Amino acid sequence: MNDIDDGKHFDTALDTIRAAGATALRYFNQRDLLTVSNKGPQDFVSEADLQTELLIRERLCAACPGDAFMGEETGLSDIGPNAGVWVVDPIDGTQPFISGLTCWCVSIAFVRGGEIQFGLVYAPARDELFAGGRGHPATLNGERLKPHAGKSLKEGLLGVGHSPRIAPERLTALMLALLKRGAMYHREGSGALGLCYAACGRLIGYIELHINAWDCLAAIAILNATGVRTNDFLAGGGLRNGNPIITGVDGVYDQLISVHRELLSRASPMTS
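and the corresponding structure tokens:
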């Protein structure tokens, strides 16, 4: 991707996420009128999710017709040779959204050549816009991000994500391992926001044993722009199938990788 192309894509994403955030916020302020359905255990979708994604898809496909689109609600379009892929979650944190909590966001990432080029995460109910990537500094509302200064799990709050895709036994094993190392955990219900909080220093790191690409790629781009370490999420088909996500400042990242390896060594088919 050349600089001119990258600039066009970034500016398009910036305009789009602001419009999408405004749309989602209007639905949030009238959430008692929303139609909500259940996709699975603790997995909800509302008309706000679908309509916000359709707005994003229409804008991005019109501005960048050669790119593919992957959204949580509308799926993955055909990917042509050398095409970029927009990876979108219209509302990450749907359950907080429909519950009246403000910990939800719109997430847009752009991937090309097997690498995350940039990402934007917008929490409109809090008026917080995170952005960053290759050639774009990591920012919150235009101000440079500064990661946490701690060097171990004992020195800050750790974000821990979970979904019903992971057996309860694996979560309890993870929590036990973390607590034994002196960690204190935090969870809001949005993986994208939790990862952004690790980028801006609110959290010392973040771990989730399985997360989907649309929930994390934009935040990973922002983390990469800060220099906070992350595992290679796209390895082994992560774009389509998801993967674990592990991120943290120096020292913390090493501890989290050690915890994850310990869990993998003890995993059985019944707890995977």
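(Above: one complete record from the training split.) The helical segments are 3-29, 47-63, 94-99, 168-180, 191-200, 213-226, 238-241, 252-266.
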